[in-house]
Structure formats: structure tokens, C-alpha cells
Amino acid sequence: MSAVEAVGGYAGGVYLRTRTDGLLRLAALEGLPGRLFRPWWRMHVNRPYPVAEAFRSGQAVHLPDAESAMRRFPQLTAGLPFTFGSLYEPVTAGDERFGVLMVLRPATPGVAVEPEHRERMRNVAARLAAELAALTAGGEPVLWDGDPFSPPPPVPRGGAETAVDRLAQAVLSMDRQGRIRYANAAAAALSATEGRPLLGEVLWEALPWLGHPAYEDHFRAVFMAREPVHFVARQGHPPAGTWLSVGLYPGPDGVTVTVGSAGSDRYAPGTEGSGSPAEGSSSALYRPVALAIALTEAVTARQVSAVVTEELLPAFGGRQLAIYLLDERHLHLAWETGFPRGFLDRFDGVGLDVRLPGVETLTTGRPLFFESMEHLAAAYPGIPLDTHVGARAFLPLIASGRPVGSCILGFDTPRGFGAEERTVLTALAGLIAQALERARRYDSEAALARGLQSALLPHRLPVRDHVVTVGRYLPGTVGMDVGGDWYDVAETGPDTLALVIGDVQGHGVAAAATMGQLRSAVRAFALGGNAPEQVVRGTNRLLIDLDPGQIASCCYVELDRTTGRARAVRAGHPQPLLRHPGGRTEVLNLRGGVVLGVDAAASYPVTEFALEPGALLALYTDGLVEVPGTDIDAGVERLRVALAAARPVPLTETADRLAGGAGATGDRPDDIALLLAWRTGPTERARGGHERAPARQSGGKFTLI
Known about the structure:
Layout: H1 2-6, E1 11-17, E2 23-30, E3 42-44, H2 50-57, E4 61-63, H3 66-72, H4 74-79, E5 85-93, E6 96-105, H5 115-137, H6 162-165, E7 170-175, E8 180-183, H7 185-188, H8 203-206, H9 216-224, E9 229-235, E10 242-251, E11 254-261, H10 283-297, H11 301-316, E12 320-327, E13 330-337, E14 350-351, H12 357-364, E15 368-370, H13 373-379, E16 391-399, E17 402-411, H14 419-456, E18 467-474, E19 483-491, E20 496-507, H15 509-527, H16 532-546, E21 552-560, E22 565-571, E23 577-579, E24 585-587, E25 592-593, E26 607-610, E27 616-620, H17 632-645, H18 651-660, E28 672-679, E29 703-704
Parallel strand pairs: 22-25
Antiparallel strand pairs: 1-2, 1-6, 2-3, 4-5, 5-6, 7-8, 7-11, 9-10, 10-11, 12-13, 12-17, 13-14, 15-16, 16-17, 18-28, 18-29, 19-20, 20-21, 21-22, 22-26, 23-24, 23-27, 27-28
């Protein structure tokens, strides 16, 4: 990979988009064994990692050392607690974002990434983007859903030395993909299959006892940083097997591995019969830290469950996960992964008087560990099993003494659970319980807040000849507070309508309360027969008199529905869009004044324009067009293009399409409000504009008003 060499790196890779919206996958990897970095093959763009940040923002991320990585991305450091530098460059062509180019290199503590290296990364990313754009132009979608491709590294120089063959200590050399390129005579005896050739084999396949998840952090450390690593590993299956001392010595083209006797078994960790080497592994520390950090950022029960799946399972080599939550005196399945479809349904809704391990772990407060499925079946005769091979851990989820639910971890093969490992799992169960308890409070408070927000918005828009109006509101999905976006349509005369949209700065109950007051004030001033500039000026003075410590933007349009004549006033709000009957769509240039709540003497000039039959006017709040890390003008242009391509009839579908394109899926940092007004032609009927009552849906779906 040219980028690796260009910036003095030792490894690199490319993340590309997948068919799953918001998910990136590692498409190419050089200089690192892919097996060791499987937890990072998938990356959601909303995760707090540098790859996601570079893709989401469209800006390069440079981390010269561990300190900068810890400061900006603590989860990266928790999962990869090694000394290295890293560079991340978005791969973009125009508005098209294909993925992220990544390079790992030695750390340069206190020294920023050199300008020439930044330029080289940009150039390589630009060349890659141009090639991917050419593929897209040729009709081939640039999407990656498979495992990462790893080009074979060059075979390092050197061979067996007679002196090394005389050593009783095993010596192997492996390249940066983990393949054995040299092994002395003593190393051949380590293979489980006598006489099996080691050269060309992946180390963890040739010596599977070194492939235990407990040792992965040691190998990751030696590939990520240029410092030797020493640890003790067990050859063979517990409780039998021999403890050996393993040394790893990194170099620019690979790693030298030495394996020798560890001396007395008393030196080896975990000899109390647990059989779990995880106790001596740094993964027992770093993975739980990563889980704890991730749990602090999860605000919904689904996010908590996803974090447990992504962080806890890989840490302990698990394959199945189920989370049950307590509702009164019954346990209900809230999340599952890895189990056969429908298998856990029979346990959904079980009472606390049923003898099941998932129930008893909660009622007794004691975790239950079964080193094999035979042990589980013997302890609970007749219990349905999804498999006859594996192991299970049942953890009570208790937060501040209150029962929350239970967590089930499943493993594909029998395994031991050491004392330290049991302690770590029990402690993590407490963190998960606290996060779930917090998430349940969030879910209930969020539902209440959404109901309040919806109650403050109009439940019905007026239906009159010549003009069809449709409104949409989507709550933000980041945080649990309500917002201050609103829209309204008021009949101010026999032939006139007032179209209003506004946005109170901030979130929370205070913003929603201010929004309700402003909506009422605008409507009162409008129904009082005031001109548009008087309506906005009076609302501004009222907001200053109320002194809520907040400001608001607003756009007010008075429309004569028979003639199409419009008079508009804008107070710091985004410019409306006007789609002409032929499809040409423009950003209106309305003169404006300052936002409401700042200057009591502010004036608000009026701009006049015409809405001809078949024309469509779009008023919106900035949540519809703002994307973190990009200019708002780019968002306005995207909305203009979408509106130009839309058909006014039916108007409800047009509103759904415009609002949904701004973030019906994924996290939205801000609320969205949209108001469309379509002036019908002389023979057209108002179709799709009358929605009698709001249809509220959970899970980030539309609130249809």
C-alpha cells in the first residue's frame, strides 16, 4: 500500500461502505494479521472511533501518539492500549464518500504529523477515490461486505542457522501477516501433529494453543508497537498441559517468537484449576474498560445491548448473548444474538417462580457458570438446550440493589471460568444493569417528552381551496430532551393563510415551553390582523419581555391563496425553497433581521414574491440541512435537488421523502421540522394534504402532523 510507505508506516488499511446504511467494513489490510483485529473489521459511523470520525466529518484525523489518542478517542486506546501513531484520511470524490484510508506508524510523542505526510495521505486518498469513482460511473457499486483482503508480504531474507538449531528453546520468525517464515528444530516439536511442516502456516493455526483469546492482546501489542512482549501460555488443554514462556520481538518486517520452559507451574497464572488463561491477559483489563466507556455513551436499551454484543462477547470469546429485563414479576426478552431463531421465545415472559438459571441468577443475586452443556443439563433436568456442546454464564443484572434483569453469555465450546474472570464478569454485569436502568428511565422520559412535543404542535392544518399544506416533525435521536422546532398554519383572513416555521435554540423542557409560547404569540398577532413585519416584531418584543434566556429563529409567510401573492419576513432563519411548476427549484433570497430575543428595536423587512399555480414552497428548520462537519450550504443544496426531483402530488409522500432523506435512520443531533405549501392549479384538487391527527411512532420514525 503506497500510503504506508509514503508516511513511514508499518501497517495500513481501507474501510469502505457496506450495503448496511451507516456501517463500514475493513476492505484491505496490510502489515497486520487480520485475525487479531477482527473486532475492528466492522465500524459504525456513529461510534467514537477515528475511522468513524473521519468518515462522518469528511476531515482527516491525525493521532501522533497514545496521549492524543486517549484524549480524543478513549475507546480506541482502551481496546488497543499500545504505543503507536495513526492517520485517517476520508476517501471522497465530490459529495461521494467511499470510506477511509488508515495508516499505522511509530508514535512521535509531542510531535505533530508532518505537513508533507498529511499531503501524501491526501494524495493517496484522492487517487483511490478517483479509481472508486470510475467504478461507480461504470455502474459497479463500491460496497464491501466481505472479509478484508490482505496482500501477501514479501518473504524476508534469512534461513535456518546451525547455531539456532542447537538451542533447546524454540525460535520462529513470522511475517506481518502472522505466517511462519522460519522455525528451528525445537520449534517443530511444538506442533500438535508430529512432522507437520510449519513454514508458510499461520502461527495460530500451526500452534492453536497460542490462539486463545487471552493471548491476543500480547500479539496485538507487538504488531502495533515496537517493543518486546513476554507472557506465559499453556500448551495443551486444561487442567493438563505445560506452561511455557513466550517472547515476542518485533521488527519492521515481522516478529521473532521464542518459546521455552516457564519453570515451575507455581509461576504460571491461573493454576487454581480454572483452566482459563484469561486471568493473566491484559484483555481482562482493557476490554472491560472499553465496555465501561462505551456504556456511558449508550442512552437507549437497544444501544446498551449493542455495546454489550460488540465489546463483551469478543473480550471473553462468547458467541451468544441474551438480555432479559424484569417487568413487574416477569422476565421479557429484550435482546438476543447468536441463538437459533425462535429458540428463546419459549422463555419470554417467564415468572420469577420458574426454576430456570436465568431466573434464579436474578432472584438469588448469584452468577451461575456452567463449564459445559452437560453441567447445565444436570443442574436443570429437562431444560431445553439449543446445543449439546458449549458453555454458559448467567449473570444477574442488579443496579443499586434493584433487580433489572439477567444476562446470558453463550460459548461454542466447553471452557473454564477462573475466579478472576468470574469476578470481572460479575462486575461488568453491574455496569450493564446500571446502563440498562438508566436507559429504561430514558425510554420512559423520552416517550413523555415526545408526547409533550407533539401536543405543542398543531394536530390539524386547515384545508382550503387553492392551497395544500403538509407538516412534518422528526425528533432528534441524540439525547433525551425535547426540542424547540415548530411549524403552524393559521387562517388570517377569508383568502389568506399565515405559514410559520421556527426554531428555539437548545433542547429540553425550557426550549419546548418557549416554543409553545412563541407559537401562541405568532398565532395571536397574526389573527389580530397585523402585517407580517408587525407579527414578527411583536413576537420578538414578547420573547425579550419573557426573558427565558433563549433566542429563536422564525420565518413567516402571508399567502393569498387565490392570487398566489406572498409577503414574507425572516428572522435569522434558513431561506425557504421555491419549486416552480416546471420543476426548477431555487433558494429564495428573503431579506431578514436578527433572531428573535436579541434586540427589542429590531426591524424585519418584508419580501414579496408570487406562488404561481403548481408551485411548491418549502419552509424547514436547520436540522433538515445541517450535517456535522459540512457546510450548511451543501445541505441546502441537497434539499433543493431533492425538492426539484420530487412530485408535488401526493404532497404527503413528498414531505415523507424530504424529511426521511435527512435522517429517518441513524442518529440525528437535532430536531427536524418541515412545512410544505402547494398552490394547486385551477382544475387540481387538494390531494394528500389533510391529516386529521398525528400518528406517533417510536424508534425514531416520523411524527405525522
